[in-house]
Amino acid sequence: IYTILSSAASDVYKRQTMQTIKGLNQLGLRLAVDDFGTGYSSLRYLRRFPIAILKIDRSFVDGLGIDREDETIVKAVIGLAGALGIAVVAEGVETALQESLLIELGCALAQGFRYGGVLDPVEAERRLPQVRAALCGPISHAGRTGLEGCPPAGG
């Protein structure tokens, strides 16, 4: 999906890209901006596309508890996403300190080696219902996830 957003920066592809995104949304797929805050990620995408998830780049998560500027950036992204009704996923969470600071800052979703390594396809499929429930249901300590109303599994 991120590739679609990157190529959509050109107005030539805007109409095609929006039709593709609408079709994906109708199938129940949601858009995520990977590595938000680096590379080609742009605030303009938050206005132009129906973004459901911002994934905070691990380079900012690495500095939590160490670098005040990284913490400020992470807090700002979480606040911006919350104001827009967009879910946030912190990438590269490896320590209990990072996890606790993210929870304190209002980030309800995270990924990284703190939670496990890369899964083989069979194990990933086995865990899918649990992940789906976490993404599509309410998160009590952080309010809206931005993904409520996910379609039922298989449909």
Secondary-structure map:
Blueprint: H1 2-7, H2 14-26, E1 31-36, H3 43-48, E2 51-56, H4 58-61, H5 68-84, E3 87-90, H6 96-105, E4 109-110, H7 121-136
Parallel strand pairs: 1-2, 2-3, 3-4
Describe, in plain words, how this protein is organized in 3D.
The protein is α/β, with parallel strands linked by helices and 155 residues long. Helix content is 46%, strand content 12%. The chain has seven helices and four strands; from the N terminus they run H-H-E-H-E-H-H-E-H-E-H. The chain has helices at residues 2-7, 14-26, 43-48, 58-61, 68-84, 96-105, 121-136; strands at residues 31-36, 51-56, 87-90, 109-110. It has a four-stranded parallel beta sheet with strand order 1-2-3-4. It starts with a helix and ends in a 19-residue tail after the last helix. Mean pLDDT is 79; it is low at 138-149 and 151-155.
Task: Report a brief summary of the structure.
By secondary structure, the protein is of the alpha/beta class. It has 7 helices and 4 strands, in the order H-H-E-H-E-H-H-E-H-E-H.
What is the helix/strand order?
HHEHEHHEHEH
Mass-distribution shape: globular
Report the strand count.
4
Fraction in helix = 40-55%
The order of strands across the largest sheet is 1-2-3-4
Count of individual helical segments: 7
Separation of the first and last Cα atoms: 20 Å
User: Which percent range describes the beta-strand content?
Assistant: 5-15%
Main sheet makeup: 4 strands, parallel
* Low-confidence parts: 138-149, 151-155
Radius of gyration: 16 Å
